[in-house]
């Protein structure tokens, strides 16, 4: 296993990381001052080197930043969501002020995602104002506002398979699936009795969605039959902050938690927990798989670090899946 | 603080300290602003502590002492009394725990009739209990600002009539133990836990020395409210004098002198007048508020109440109270003994104070750095509030972010403790620090 690479951002507490879809060694991190409770925010663009990470670009924002997503159309562009309810479009080739700022949400924006289905180029945002908004890639104004959640929206993710399809997770305990063209909620799953802080689509099976909840469990759902989850993954001892499906393996996913750990799961096997990584000293909020470098994972934590590592369990899981 | 509430809501309570962990992790840098819901101490003052029956307050009614501190605290911060949501006064010996006396004191201080008041009696912890009661009312949202006080005149009232008790008391061991004189409980602790006469005397001497040093270097000057009173001497002559110094401190105390004192409660005992707390008169008042309300009014934040606990212990060993209450309060606050910089542990008797210090493994230099009740005196209802005033003044004097604990044993078998955080000098000024570095 390669050594872990660590980037320290003093006085900034990481909320989200995402690996660039274009540049294999590049990642973005949205971080906030004072644990995001108050103060300002920072957006970092980092490149990994052999032994660590270097800062390529960073910007300051007047409020905390809670999520970041790379553009799927332009390798320099990213969108971030802020505590002031704004979305900002940034250009990593340009040090100056954001390309665009869109302020429609009335409360914190906790989630941003850029659609991956080609030809679409839409951005989705989820906010504590309970709404989900869809935007064009210029952030000129929202195209649709999706209402229905009865609690704060924590997570909004485009389906990688079905155009115009979004999954959202909310404090109201439901996982919802939306059809953007019809501007309607297609499915509302009462997935947990507690708040759901994260959701993600399986990259291989268009019907599978994972949810991570305050009840400390990760559930995998088949949207064709939502009466009970396909799998319930237990092990975390505090709320789950983010879930991510592996880009390389159909049944592998990762979760990070307030219990300071990142856990890797294979829900296809009899013993789902593959490994627990305990290299943080505070809540772990950001998590992403590197889709260019198999088995490499990026995370960020309130302990002011961003880490890149390659857990052995992922290589082992790939080997056993192949055999 | 919406965001903090949301995140706190993500932490399923697994124990009382769990939700507070978020607050604590957010507070690990001294420049982090606190949540508006915290209970904060704005200010506190006390009178000097007079020797009962022979000292300067011997002819002073408790309402006068109480009125003096209540007025001083509000005048110091420029807060009109009308802003107070409630006032709670700790008192033990007055009839009905001084409920009428407290209302009279109100009006002597010129408080408007619209401000309510009540009194509380949990024996030696009453002054601290008053603070915990006001804190509770703030937390439950029924008030925004409150005054917690304590007062006792042991000159004018003695521990006497125990009240109307059932005759079944004699058949019930624990009930009977409630009538054990405090001095005997001290002997019980000394014998059961092996606290020798020598150690008790050494502890008593240390209390006297620390108090004398504090008094002489002027450490108490800021917290003491001078009170002008009348004193009538044996020949009936009345004079007016201003009292501004604690009277219990016996400079010139020596180990030798202490060792010659005869046991006061048991012929072959170890508890003497020299290693016991003194019978005294005094009052103290502490202004508390919800942080958001305090900041809106531009009032300073002197300290934050971080946790508290009241526990029960065997009545015949009541002195061990702090040894049980302090860990309970620390658990509630999410802190450990090592986090605490100063402990104010009431010295009801050297035997029990020492037992608690040793049981908890506390470094002696952290305990009562400015002396304790052995030197200063223990006006029952006042003590808890007095310890808070002295503790917070000491933390402020040291000038850096620190935690302190106030604790005492309680007659009939209880212990109480509260944990305070002094946020550091830059956080004392009123108003939120914007936090842009």
TrEMBL record, chain A:
Pfam families per UniProt: WD40 (PF00400)
GO cellular component term of the entry, any: peroxisomal matrix
Classification via InterPro entries: PEX7, WD40/YVTN_repeat-like_dom_sf, WD40_PAC1, WD40_repeat_CS, WD40_repeat_dom_sf, WD40_rpt
SUPFAM superfamilies: WD40 repeat-like (SSF50978)
Any one GO BP annotation for this protein: protein import into peroxisome matrix
Subcellular location: Cytoplasm, Cytosol; Peroxisome matrix
Molecular function terms, GO-annotated: peroxisome matrix targeting signal-2 binding
Keyword terms: Cytoplasm, Peroxisome, Protein transport, Receptor, Repeat, Transport, WD repeat
Domain of life (superkingdom): Eukaryota
Residues annotated as signal peptide: none
First and last residues of every WD repeat: 102-145, 146-188, 189-231, 233-275
PROSITE patterns the UniProt entry points to: WD_REPEATS_1, WD_REPEATS_2, WD_REPEATS_REGION
Similarity-based family: Belongs to the WD repeat peroxin-7 family.
Protein name per Swiss-Prot or TrEMBL: Peroxin-7
């Amino acid at each position: 296993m390669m050594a872990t690479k660590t980037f320290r951002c003093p006085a900034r507490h990481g909320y989200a990381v995402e690996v660039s879809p274009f540049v294999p060694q590049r990642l973005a991190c949205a971080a906030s001052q004072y644990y995001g409770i108050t103060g300002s925010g920072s957006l970092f663009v980092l490149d990994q080197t052999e032994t660590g990470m270097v800062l390529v670009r960073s910007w300051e924002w007047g409020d905390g930043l809670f999520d970041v997503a790379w553009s799927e159309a332009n390798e320099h562009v990213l969108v971030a969501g802020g505590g002031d309810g704004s979305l900002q479009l940034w250009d990593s080739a340009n040090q100056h002020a954001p390309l665009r700022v869109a302020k429609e949400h009335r409360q914190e924006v906790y989630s941003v995602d850029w659609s991956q289905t080609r030809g679409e180029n839409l951005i989705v945002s989820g906010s504590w104002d309970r709404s989900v908004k869809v935007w064009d890639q210029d952030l000129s104004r929202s195209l649709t506002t999706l209402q229905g959640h009865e609690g704060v929206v924590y997570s909004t993710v485009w389906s990688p398979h079905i155009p115009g399809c979004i999954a959202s997770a909310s404090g109201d305990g439901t996982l919802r699936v939306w059809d953007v063209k019809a501007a309607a909620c297609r499915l509302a799953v009462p997935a947990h009795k507690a708040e759901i802080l994260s959701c993600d689509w399986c990259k291989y099976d268009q019907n599978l969605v994972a949810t991570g909840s305050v009840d400390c469990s990760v559930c995998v759902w088949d949207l064709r039959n939502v009466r009970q989850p396909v799998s319930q993954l237990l092990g975390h001892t505090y709320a789950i902050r983010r879930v991510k499906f592996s880009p390389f393996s159909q049944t592998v996913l990762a979760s990070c938690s307030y219990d300071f750990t990142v856990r890797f799961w294979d829900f296809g096997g009899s013993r789902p927990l593959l490994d627990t990584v305990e290299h943080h000293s505070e809540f772990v909020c950001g998590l992403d798989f590197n889709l260019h470098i198999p088995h490499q994972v990026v995370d960020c934590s309130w302990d002011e670090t961003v880490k890149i590592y390659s857990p052995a369990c992922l290589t082992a899981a790939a080997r056993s899946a192949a055999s | 603080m919406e965001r903090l509430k949301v995140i706190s809501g993500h932490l399923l309570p697994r124990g009382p300290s769990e939700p507070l962990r978020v607050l604590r992790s957010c507070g690990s840098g001294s420049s982090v602003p606190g949540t508006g819901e915290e209970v904060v101490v704005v200010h506190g003052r006390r009178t000097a502590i007079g020797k009962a029956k022979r000292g300067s307050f011997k002819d002073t009614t408790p309402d006068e002492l109480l009125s003096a501190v209540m007025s001083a605290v509000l005048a110091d911060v420029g807060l009109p009394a009308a802003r107070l949501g409630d006032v709670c006064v700790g008192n033990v010996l007055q009839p009905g725990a001084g409920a009428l006396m407290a209302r009279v004191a109100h009006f002597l201080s010129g408080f408007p009739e619209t401000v309510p008041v009540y009194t509380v009696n949990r024996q030696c912890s009453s002054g601290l209990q008053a603070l915990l009661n006001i804190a509770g009312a703030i937390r439950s949202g029924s008030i925004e600002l409150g005054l917690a006080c304590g007062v006792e005149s042991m000159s004018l009232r003695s521990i006497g009539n125990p009240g109307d008790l059932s005759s079944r008391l004699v058949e019930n061991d624990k009930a009977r133990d409630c009538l054990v004189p405090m001095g005997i409980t001290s002997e019980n602790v000394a014998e059961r836990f092996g606290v020798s006469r020598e150690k008790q005397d050494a502890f008593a001497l240390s209390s006297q020395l620390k108090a004398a040093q504090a008094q002489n270097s002027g450490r108490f000057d800021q917290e003491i409210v001078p009170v002008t009173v009348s004193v009538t001497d044996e020949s009936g002559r009345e004079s007016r004098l201003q009292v501004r110094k604690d009277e219990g401190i016996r400079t010139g105390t020596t180990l030798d002198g202490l060792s010659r004192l005869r046991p006061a409660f048991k012929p072959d005992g170890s508890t003497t007048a020299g290693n016991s707390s003194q019978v005294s008169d005094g009052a103290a008042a502490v202004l508390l508020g919800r942080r958001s309300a305090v900041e809106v009014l531009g009032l300073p934040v002197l300290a934050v109440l971080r946790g508290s606990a009241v526990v029960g212990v065997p009545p015949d060993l009541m002195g061990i109270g702090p040894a049980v209450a302090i860990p309970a309060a620390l658990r509630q606050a999410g802190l450990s003994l090592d986090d605490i910089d100063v402990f104010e542990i009431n010295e009801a008797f050297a035997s029990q104070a020492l037992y608690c210090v040793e049981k908890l493994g506390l470094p002696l230099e952290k305990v009562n750095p400015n002396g304790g009740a052995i030197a200063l005196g223990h006006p029952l209802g006042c003590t808890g509030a007095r310890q808070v005033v002295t503790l917070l003044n000491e933390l402020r004097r040291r000038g850096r972010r620190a935690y302190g604990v106030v604790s005492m044993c309680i007659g009939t078998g209880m212990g109480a403790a509260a944990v305070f955080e002094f946020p550091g000098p830059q956080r004392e000024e009123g108003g939120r620090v914007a936090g842009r570095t």
